[in-house]
Amino acid sequence: MRTLIAGIRQLVTPRGRGPVGGEKMNSLFVQDGVDILVEDGRIVRIAVGIPTRGIDNTIDAAGMIAMPGFVDPHTHAVFAGTREDEFLARVRGVRYDGGGILETMRAVRAASEETLAANARAHVRRMLAWGTTTVEIKSGYGLDVENEVKLLLALRRVRRNVPTRIVATFLGAHAFPPAMRRDDYISMIITEMIPTVRRRRLAQFCDVFCDEGFYTIAETRAILRAARGAGLRIKIHADELAPSGGAELAAELSATSADHLLCTSERGMRLMQAAGVVPVLLPGTAFTLHTEYAPARRMIALGLPVAIGTDFNPGTCLIYAMPIVIGLAVMRMGMTVEEAITAATLNAAAALELADEIGSIEEGKAADIILLDVDNYRQIPYFFGHNPVRAVICGGKTVYRAR
Amino acid sequence: MRTLIAGIRQLVTPRGRGPVGGEKMNSLFVQDGVDILVEDGRIVRIAVGIPTRGIDNTIDAAGMIAMPGFVDPHTHAVFAGTREDEFLARVRGVRYDGGGILETMRAVRAASEETLAANARAHVRRMLAWGTTTVEIKSGYGLDVENEVKLLLALRRVRRNVPTRIVATFLGAHAFPPAMRRDDYISMIITEMIPTVRRRRLAQFCDVFCDEGFYTIAETRAILRAARGAGLRIKIHADELAPSGGAELAAELSATSADHLLCTSERGMRLMQAAGVVPVLLPGTAFTLHTEYAPARRMIALGLPVAIGTDFNPGTCLIYAMPIVIGLAVMRMGMTVEEAITAATLNAAAALELADEIGSIEEGKAADIILLDVDNYRQIPYFFGHNPVRAVICGGKTVYRAR
């Protein structure tokens, strides 16, 4: 199957097979008037004027900007129930302490796998309309073996029903379930959940909410060592609520990513940089909770390959849209548009260990491409809230078209 | 022509034929399972189980929430050129001083009436997809007789080509054109522009940018008195950049609305309340410029009928979406969802002297109605950035459907 994406007004993409850090984040490859040849879902040629002979299918991209599909490297998009009451209470001044996770846990335990899959599918489809072609989704609202497995099985169902690439993360250590001793739950994670996740191949990553009031450094270390031993890649919810040493631990364990990082120390940032940990920043959550933002500029100055994501979840951020996250990264974290695009594509792919496969438009990578109707890519944050996505291509097939 | 909007899951609307102020803003009329009967574009009956006999057309609203179409009472949506470079420079720390208006003026003077109309039409259509069925649009980027008239004639063209109700405002006093004496320009506004606007029926309102660095109180008074004498209703850009007495002047002149009001004094608010001036708050601009927000809570405490709008313009706010403005009103100005919805519909209609015609779903009013796919109206700010609009009905006709 040979597909030609024809007549692209301007191609805009970072380049590389791994994360790019520091000032390299600021340089995008830009080329006018190109076509992209796709064979069996993979980009095989990018050039001006590719002949149409032997082409099975042509996608008209006339007048459009082509960019790599967005990669959203951090969401909690499989759940039941909504928490607008908590959201509105917080606006009136009630502080976020993560307690709402247990409310969602109760709704998830009461929901069927089918319902959870249908909910997640609806969220993933809305994300697709905003250009997200790969999304990471965490469990973490089950908090016992049966319900964590149910969430991850729901994700498996979703994967069969959407064109989006879904990366599953096991986050049993998201909170502590009620009526259970803390150590007993951690022991359950290590001796029952992680082996089950491994045996049934339910997730690619294991993550822990390491923070004040959640999992301690020692607990996080124990869980993630077990996960690594079971062949899972690891991530850490680090330093969101307090400077609790999460970044340092991510470096110690060579985690793939450390996420949130609002309160991270200079030492933590330097250690992450040395250890090759991708910092995943989630400005939508800082926006929603009205807190300080993560120190993106300092991280880039230290050479770190910053990634950005939505953190879509029912408590602290209901933003589906990577273009809005790019807007917040530019307007509130002081990132350049070029850095924000790199963070939302190639570096986000690296935060999922997928930078050799997606995250840029280059020969050999999967043809996950979005077509945008802005005049130039610098308008993405400027038209804040506008969805610039006209069409979404996954593996060379058009899977979404705006009306 | 009799149309039935059938099977509405929940009707949500403010009620009244004029603005509602203070605590009345917080109470919406909510009814489950109703139908709406429309005759010749007007709502004639709202009830449970309206018989389908004699109906020419049925709009299926099953499962949807019905609300009045949003009224955006303050935009500058007719212009040429974009200013993303200025936007990005401001993010890097360059302060907004309104100077970019002249950049847009140059682009507008170089553009044809057709181009300006095409640009505005595109903006109005995007707004329609976010549920805006009535929009106020100001001139103000021409700054001479020929080009101000061209902008208003472009709006007349747009009005013929979109289902949206467009209210035109003459804002010749938006800035001072280069190479012209200040007094000469004001004299041109009063003796040439306003009479032309009147004679050719180009606008319903006259507005002045009354602020530090722009028009003084005395200049604003002179222009608006002339406008009133010519039969135009009046509005004031008041106290955006500094406490410059705009609110007090709006009260003195019984302006229909005073807009922005970030720096308004307690006295100004009390005078507006006594004089029946509608305060139009524009949180998207405060968000974009990262300034303080207008004191909405204080205004509501004083009984003022707060309205909200986008301020869509090429310099300081490119937000099309009233749902995003509602989100900002709730998250950043401390308004309740109910107050924000009232502000975006009935009070916004009052800011355009249209509260007897639109702004609520009530018998006798125009059938400008939007159908939303949220579970309940409290989710509008919660799903920040999501477009909840599934269908838009103007005058009883479906004019937009989401895919």
Q: What's the CATH architecture of the largest domain in chain A?
A: Alpha-Beta Barrel
CATH superfamily of the largest domain in chain A: Metal-dependent hydrolases
| Global Rg of chain A | 20 Å
Could you name the CATH class of the largest domain in chain A? Alpha Beta
- CATH fold-level label of the largest domain in chain A: TIM Barrel
Instruction: Note the quaternary state here.
Output: homodimer
Per DSSP E runs of 2 or more residues, the count of β-strands of chain A stands at 16
Q: Quickly give the structural class of chain A.
A: alpha/beta
Describe the biggest sheet of chain A? 8 strands, mixed
Termini separation of chain A comes to 27 Å
Total count of domains of chain A: 2
Mean pLDDT of chain A comes to 97
Our estimate of the beta-strand percent of chain A is 15-25%
Largest interface: A-B, 37 and 38 residues
Question: Are there runs of chain A of 5+ residues with pLDDT below 50, and where?
Answer: none
Number of H/I helices of chain A: 14
Helix content of chain A: 25-40%
Shape of chain A: globular
Order of helices and strands of chain A: EEEEEEHHHEHEHEHEHEHEHHEHHHEHEE
Description of the structure:
Two copies of one chain form a homodimer. Chain A is an alpha/beta fold. The first copy, chain A, is built from 14 helices and 16 strands. The first copy, chain A, has two domains: 2-68 and 360-401, Urease, subunit C, domain 1; 70-350, TIM Barrel (Alpha-Beta Barrel). Chain A has helices spanning 84-91, 100-110, 113-129, 145-161, 182-199, 217-229, 246-252, 266-275, 283-289, 296-301, 322-333, 337-344, 346-350, 379-382, and strands spanning 2-13, 29-39, 42-47, 57-60, 65-68, 70-72, 132-138, 165-173, 205-210, 233-238, 257-260, 278-281, 307-308, 369-372, 389-394, 397-401. In chain A, the strands form two sheets. In chain A, strands 1, 2, 3, 4, 5, 14, 15 and 16 form an eight-stranded mixed beta sheet that branches. An eight-stranded parallel beta sheet of chain A has the order 6-7-8-9-10-11-12-13. In chain A, a hairpin with a 2-residue loop joins strand 15 (389-394) and strand 16. In chain A, helix 3 packs across helix 4 (145-161), helix 5 packs parallel to helix 6 (217-229) and helix 11 (322-333) crosses helix 12. The longest helix of chain A has 18 residues, at 182-199. The interface between A and B is large, with 37 and 38 residues.
